[in-house]
Design a protein that fits this description.
By secondary structure, this protein is α/β, with parallel strands linked by helices. It has a single domain (10-243), classed as Chloramphenicol Acetyltransferase (2-Layer Sandwich). The protein is built from 8 helices and 8 strands; from the N terminus they run αβααββββααααβββα. The chain has helices at 10-22, 37-45, 52-66, 117-129, 136-145, 149-161, 163-170, 220-244, and strands spanning 27-35, 72-75, 81-84, 89-98, 101-110, 173-175, 194-201, 206-214. It has a 6-stranded mixed sheet, sandwiched between helices. Helix 3 (52-66) packs across helix 4 (117-129), helix 3 packs across helix 8 and helix 6 (149-161) crosses helix 7. The longest helix is centred in the last third of the chain and has 25 residues, at 220-244. This is Acyltransferase. It comes from Bradyrhizobium huanghuaihaiense.
């Protein structure tokens, strides 16, 4: 059967490079349904409810503030070591359409635990609609993706294997979800060390969360504790910030 050859676009080349970089990471995953009833009540009453990605980004970063292992990456150079970052750096998978092609690009958010929730949400929303050249992270990753293959391999090796550069290039954790497109349990692959994915809100007011992590960095017991703490932070600190944004306006009805 004779088909039609197609050129690999820059966004698709980026995914190819990303998958190659993720091949050797020994990932393990843990999933759990979180009861988020207080969070849902706070979000329903908020004047400007933020997106789910923003809430999970800030919640995970708040947990990581007290759990240094969530800010730890595995670095190979100059020798294999665990490198603890001073603050969290989130990488959010942004679904876009470029030149008629659906693609995913990574948006970097530094120290989300210290940012207002509305600002985290605004950065994510802007990354979905602004031109690629207006987003610094997009410009950086596209510039690297345009390099010839040997130079791309070198740039990825530097970004992945030095602890300091690992935080700058790939962050300390990633958030990815397809909940906006329907249900399903997503197990994404990135170079790590931590990837958080969430599903749709269920009728019983729970949400299914999956954490995948680099087993060289930590084990399952700490991650089980992290899921418990994540549920608490969503229902307390994140819910309180939503409530603090002001109640939803009530429209007067003429009688």
């Amino acid at each position: 059967m004779r088909g039609t050859p197609k050129t690999i676009s820059l966004p698709r080349r980026l995914i190819c490079d990303l998958m190659r970089a993720s091949m050797d990471v020994p990932f393990v995953s843990l999933s759990r349904s979180l009861d988020i009833r207080p969070l849902l009540e706070a979000r329903a009453g908020a004047l400007a409810p933020v997106g789910w990605a923003a809430m999970f980004v800030k919640a995970f970063a708040l947990v990581a503030r007290d759990e240094p292992v969530l800010r730890t990456v595995y670095a190979k150079w100059p020798r294999p070591t665990l490198y603890e970052l001073p603050k969290s750096v989130a990488t959010v998978a942004i679904a876009r359409v470029e030149d008629g092609e659906e693609c995913v690009l990574p948006q970097r958010i530094a120290a989300p635990e210290a940012l207002p929730l509305a600002q985290v949400d605004a950065e994510i929303r802007r990354a979905k609609t602004a031109p690629i050249e207006d987003i610094p992270m997009f410009r950086k990753i596209m510039r690297a993706t345009r390099l010839p293959l040997p130079l791309r391999r070198l740039s990825w090796a530097v970004g992945l294997n030095f602890g300091r550069q690992r935080g700058n290039w790939f962050g300390s954790f990633a958030v990815s979800s397809v909940a906006a497109y329907g249900g399903g349990e997503l197990h994404p692959i990135t170079p790590g060390p931590f990837i958080v994915s969430y599903g749709v809100v269920e009728p019983d007011q729970t949400i299914h969360v999956v954490i995948r992590w680099d087993h060289r960095v930590t084990d399952a017991a700490p991650i089980a504790r992290v899921l418990t703490r994540l549920e608490q932070v969503l229902n307390t600190e994140i819910a309180a910030e939503l409530q603090g944004s002001g109640p939803k306006a009530i429209r007067a009805v003429r009688t």
